Amino acid sequence: MSPHAAHGRDRFLKQSIGSLLPKVHEYADPQQSRVLLVGAGGIGCELLKNLLLSGFGTIHIIDLDTIDLSNLNRQFLFRHEHIKKPKALVAKEVAQKFRPQSTIEAYHANIKESRFNVDWFSSFDLVFNALDNLDARRHVNRMCLAANVPLVESGTTGYNGQVQVIKKARTECYDCTNKPVPKSFPVCTIRSTPSQPIHCIVWAKSYLFPELFGTSEDDVELDHSEDADNAGEIENLRQEAKALKEIRNSMPSEEFTEKVFEKVFYKDIARLQTIEEMWKSRPAPQPLSYGPLVEESKGIDTSICSDDQKIWTVAQNFVVFRDSILRLKKRLLDAQPDAIDGDKAILSFDKDDIDTLDFVAASSNLRAAIFGLEAKSKFDIKQMAGNIIPAIATTNAMTAALCVLQAFKVLKDEYENAKMVFLERSGARAINTDSLKPPNPDCPVCAVAQRKIFINPESATLNDLVERILRLELGYGEEFSISNQIGTIYDPDLEDNLPKKLSELGVQKDSFITVVDEEDENPRVNLEILVSERTDDKSTISLEASDVDIPRKPKPDEELPAEAQENGVSKLKRTADEAGLEVAEGQPSKKISNGTDNNTSTNPILLEDDTGTILIDAD
């Protein structure tokens, strides 16, 4: 594009949206701004296009996913030839043509990687979230708060959309309001008495796959609250899991696939058949045998895996099951030499990973056949296991446009004019707004004090942190606890951890630790500490100098007035100015001891409505 053409485009842009002058600082001009876009999916594609056409000069975009066939109907930057390629890299290549003079940096990576630390976030003037999962959203929210960078959060579900401006100490953050509690399923239902296809899918995804190829752990989709009422059956299930671990150790052998099949589809089912009380009001399960299915499946080609719209027969599922196990087995064994410190290599389920999806689809359908349940196509299982709601391109486009309109207000530091914006199909208005709320004084994420420490990872211990930093320098008393992303690493009952190196307890460079003052009288607000590494200093641990004191928690009579904390709903009637503005411009804690990693998954959960459609907050 010639400079003259570019100038002409900017001229029309100014006519459309007006000038951002008067500038409140040097970055108020979008052309001089440096912004980060997290997510290159449905909203992300639209946002990238809008940012370029709105004149933003430097855009960094990051996404971990690759392009899938199902993305093409709404993620307009992608074409059929881009399938399996990284979303972020393709988005950069295609969108760069919209405005060649803008700079786009793309990352095919996880935003939670350590290289994307607080200092990196601090280099941006504005961050846009276009994500489809709760865990990543919370991470970006926390990093933006730590870096004191404004965040424009967005999301869509079907016809509904939402845009929220977040700024440290001025507005609510993403975690200031409670999010819906994920749906979970009792362990005995999943492992012993499935009654719906979704139960078989959760079993394959959250139990069988991690036991064989991932990390065996209590998944959030499995509800243990009823364990006490089924103690006998729970003990049997534990024995089954133990036997499966032994089979996993035989993975290099040729008999591995047959051992897995015989264990989960024959022996375990035969045991369930003997529990007559379970089957008084429902048909008993019928186990599958390996040998007969080998004969029945002769002549069925593994290419059946690519037919994701078809509901496979039992024999076809058997073929896909065997083929996917061989693929996953090879990947895991090939990855083992690269595992750190002799740990076992692991794989994780991903809806866009064909090998893992084939395994979950075939395993869940074989289990469904055993219990007389309806089989599902691979396409349907991907939606259900991957927590996808069919997205609507128009909703994504409208939401992305609203993000940019709110961004202009942020660049001018006009937070008083920024709004929470809601798209709704029902109701008197398609677009509703609400004023931004102040921070929630009880928010565990933004209503905290923040400090920074420097550690020598080879020598700093938990005792150094507790005694030298928290008690000596910051004046903490006896009653407090320390936690990180793994769990609680210190409280008065965990003094055995004091001699351990912080690195042994999961405290690493660019990670966060939280200190909770548990004194009965006048406790401090929670302290969030950013950990930085320093190897050129003789000191094992040091606290960054700061004039900011750690405030005390407000007493009841010091809390904000009710009207200031009220989380109101959007108004149906607005003033002319408000209407004109929008139209014209547009967890239980865990303790860590003996160095054990008790990390739990925070993957989204399947939610089911009366029609059987899987619903989740997605882009």
Strand order in space, largest sheet: 3-2-1-4-5-6-9-10
How many structural domains? 3
Number of helices: 17
Quick one: CATH superfamily of the largest domain? NAD(P)-binding Rossmann-like Domain
| Average of the residue pLDDT scores | 82
Q: Percent of residues in helical segments?
A: 25-40%
CATH class category of the largest domain = Alpha Beta
Q: Could you say which overall geometry the principal axes of the C-alpha atoms support?
A: globular
Helix and strand content put the structural class at: alpha/beta
- Please name the CATH architecture of the largest domain: 3-Layer(aba) Sandwich
- Poorly predicted runs are 20-27, 217-229, 558-590, 594-619
Q: Report strand %.
A: 5-15%
Write down how many β-strands occur, each being a DSSP E stretch of 2 or more residues: 18
What is the rounded distance between the termini? Answer: 32 Å
Q: Main beta sheet, described?
A: 8 strands, mixed
Radius of gyration: 27 Å
What CATH calls the topology of the largest domain is Rossmann fold
Describe this structure in words.
The chain is 34% helix and 13% strand. The protein is an alpha/beta fold and 619 residues long. The chain has three domains: 18-178 and 390-435, Rossmann fold (3-Layer(aba) Sandwich), CATH 3.40.50; 192-388, Arc Repressor Mutant, subunit A (Orthogonal Bundle); 449-558, Ubiquitin-like 2 activating enzyme e1b. Chain:  B, domain 3 (Structural Genomics Hypothetical 15.5 Kd Protein In mrcA-pckA Intergenic Region, Chain A, Roll), CATH 3.10.290.20. The strands form four sheets. Strands 3-2-1-4-5-6-9-10 form an eight-stranded mixed β-sheet, sandwiched between helices. Strands 13-12-14-15-11-16 form a six-stranded mixed β-sheet, covered by helices on one side. A two-stranded parallel ribbon has the order 7-8. Helix 2 packs across helix 14 and helix 8 (231-248) runs antiparallel to helix 9. Mean pLDDT is 82; it is low at 20-27, 217-229, 558-590 and 594-619.
